[in-house]
Specification:
The protein is built from 17 helices and 15 strands. With 474 residues, it is an alpha/beta fold. The protein has 4 domains: 126 residues, no CATH class; 177 residues, P-loop containing nucleotide triphosphate hydrolases (Rossmann fold); 26 residues, no CATH class; 82 residues, no CATH class. It is elongated. Bound molecules: adenosine-5'-triphosphate and magnesium ion. The site of magnesium ion has 4 residues, from helix 7.
């Protein structure tokens, strides 16, 4: 039996003595009471602090417990004799070792010895709503009362800082998606599901004008280091980005690059799976800080464009009112989607949006003009970033990524052609990609030139046809 366990046994024996003593106390003369205290503190000069795994009204996993567990996992492999091994997909180190249940280790801080014991109890529950058995885990720290201030102050701070640092070191980004609101009922049901986020995009590989890229990187860096600044100006620590531009210009790629650059998790919010505005709030609360909340193709996700679609709907509703089957369909439709523009505005900007902090909200769209101005006004979407057709600077980044070349005699032809026609970075990239081992960089550049010439010709033909049609109409 280890020291910590002996102390905790001793603690419970002393506890029993106190209990009996308290009962008998009334028959003791009062002048003897102070001897009792001296006697007890001589018998058991140790303090114990217990950290439970779950705490709070909503049985939320305790942050302190998590941090201590991570800290101890870092120390245990050298110190503990009985270890527990888990395969952790979310960590860089696939095998995570931690102290086994009811195991004990000794830690040392500034020359002071401390004992940690991990406890695991299984309780039987009589509640109808909870599972019949309930597991409880806790970590108990034992130390001499002489070191009370050192342990409660510097030692605890040291553990929390170390725990955080180990977590950042081992962290793998996660990509979350929301489960349909209709699946949220039931014990242990989750609002978000996740996988490990492994997109390789970075700002180095992102093809866009270097000046614009630098501006975005600076903005993100400023945001990351802005905790005090945001507190000072009295603003929630969050930032909104609107990414807009034609398909294939790198909006989704930029989100991945931002996630990798900031080391933030990504919450890909599928609005069509959210039933009501209140569910949006619940999703927000269940997302962590240091994260990016993404709503892709916001113009398609919801009827946010107001009047035009409403009128169309009203006409349909009249038809449906007469037909009982259609009436039921309409009721189902109404039930399915109750997220409104104001709900979304509240989500991005309301009082709840500040919970957690250090959060980026990104909307993407192909049609920026279709969006309600209220949704994208500054303050909600602080930075509007246009991703457009491939320019020469963006092409050079792609040539470096795909062909590993920084200059070539064909570059000036490509520069001229890119100025004369619109081609998305996705198309340029596809042309540059070697399709067999025989293709070298020159042949890939030739393929791109041919494709650009064809695109230019097509655009010219279309323009001619348009002109001809106009002339005919005159
Ligand atoms: N600016 C870019 N830099 C690097 N690669 C790009 C860029 N734009 C597009 N690509 C390439 O093209 C593919 C499609 O790009 P992406 O999915 O980011 O486009 P998108 O703007 O999100 O399109 P959509 O509007 O259809 O969602 C990516 O896999 C990427 O390889
Ligand atoms: Mg996209």
């Amino acid at each position: 039996m280890g020291f910590g366990a002996i102390f905790s046994k001793l603690g419970s024996i002393i506890g029993s003595i106190i209990f009996i003593y308290t009962i008998l106390e009334q028959w003791f003369p009062s002048h003897l009471r102070k001897y009792r205290d001296i006697f007890l503190s001589l018998m058991y000069p140790f303090i114990q602090i217990t950290f439970h795994e779950f705490s709070g009204a909503y049985l939320k996993r305790s942050d302190a417990y998590t941090m201590i567990q991570i800290y101890l996992s870092g120390n245990t492999s050298q110190k503990a004799k009985r270890l527990k091994a888990e395969v952790n997909k979310d960590s860089h180190t696939p095998l995570v070792l931690s102290m086994d249940d009811n195991e004990e280790i000794t830690d040392e801080f500034q020359g002071v010895k401390l004992w940690w014991v991990s406890k695991h109890t299984i309780m039987k529950s009589h509640s109808f709503f909870y599972p019949p058995t309930d597991e409880k885990r806790s970590l108990t720290l034992t130390f001499h009362k002489r070191y009370r201030d050192l342990v409660i102050g510097p030692y605890m701070k040291h553990i929390l800082n170390e725990g955080k640092a180990i977590r950042v070191r081992n962290r793998q980004l996660k990509l979350y998606t929301n489960n349909p609101s209709s699946d949220w009922n039931g014990y242990k049901s989750r609002k978000w599901s996740h996988i490990v986020f492994e997109h390789p995009a970075t700002f180095e590989t992102l093809a866009m004008d270097p000046k614009k890229k630098k501006e975005i990187v600076n903005d993100l860096e400023k945001f990351k280091a802005g905790k005090e600044y945001y507190a000072k100006i009295g603003k929630a620590w969050k930032r909104g980005y609107l990414l807009y531009g034609p398909p294939g210009t790198g909006k989704s790629t930029m989100i991945a690059a931002i996630a990798n650059f900031m080391n933030y998790d990504v919450y890909d919010l599928e609005l069509t799976a959210v039933k009501a505005n209140t569910d949006l709030k619940k999703l927000l609360i269940e997302s962590s800080s240091k994260s990016i909340i993404v709503i892709e193709d916001i113009d398609c996700s919801l009827d946010l464009t107001g009047q035009r679609n409403k009128k169309k709907k009203e006409k349909g509703e009249k038809d449906k009112a007469e037909d009982p089957i259609k009436k039921a369909e309409k009721e189902e439709e109404d039930k399915d989607s109750k997220v409104t523009l104001s709900g979304l505005l509240n989500f991005t900007d309301g009082i709840w949006s500040a919970c957690g902090g250090e959060r980026i909200i990104i909307f993407t769209t192909n049609f920026v003009d279709k969006l309600d101005p209220a949704l994208i006004r500054r303050g909600r979407m602080d930075k509007h970033i246009e991703l457009s057709y491939c320019g020469y600077e963006a092409f050079k980044v792609l040539a470096k990524n795909y062909l590993d070349i920084e200059s070539h005699s064909l570059f000036h032809i490509i520069e001229k052609l890119l100025g004369e026609t619109n081609m998305t970075p996705a198309d340029v990239a596809e042309n540059l990609m070697p399709k067999s081992n025989d293709e070298d960089s020159e042949s890939c550049l030739q393929v791109l030139i041919k494709s650009l010439e064809e695109a230019r010709k097509k655009a010219e033909d279309e323009e001619m046809q348009l002109k001809a049609e106009k002339m005919e109409n005159l």
